[in-house]
Amino acid sequence: MALITCPECATSVSNKAAACPSCGAPIAGAAVSAEVGVNLTTTQETSKSLKARILLFSAMFWLGCWWLVVASQSGSPAGIAVPVVLSSIGFFGYIVTKAMVWWHHK
Ligand SMILES: [Zn+2]
Question: Which one, 47, 61, 91, 99, has the greatest CB density within 10 A?
Fold first, then answer.
């Protein structure tokens, strides 16, 4: 239990109280919605950065695959090293990021 200041009349009120005993302003509801708001913001930020990484890694993977097809048609074995590395990084980055997304979900 903690004492908070009533937003309406500045009296010290328990944060478990449903309403301020002095002026009747709702306390517990306001505290709960503030906590939920903070949690939603945190989750949204995390998933957005992870979504950006999934996009980046899948773009690297598909670019590497496309590049590999183009390079293999030219017939030089040395030319496929870069697209193989690129699509490998994209593939493993995608797997790792998917695992991180799964880890973030409770
Ligand atoms: Zn009050």
Answer: 61
pLDDT of amino acid 38: 53
Q: From ligand 1's centre to the CA of 19, what distance in Å?
A: 8
Tell me, in angstroms, the distance from the centre of ligand 1 to residue 77's CA.
77
DSSP 5-53: E-TTT--EEETT-SB-TTT--B-HHHHHHHHHHHHHHHHHHHHHHHHHH
pTM score: 0.50
Residues around ion ligand 1, judged by CB within 5 A, are 6, 8-9, 11, 20, 22-23, 25
Q: How far is the CA of 32 from the centre of ligand 1 (A)?
A: 17
Residue 72: half-sphere exposure toward Cβ, Cα within 13 Å: 8
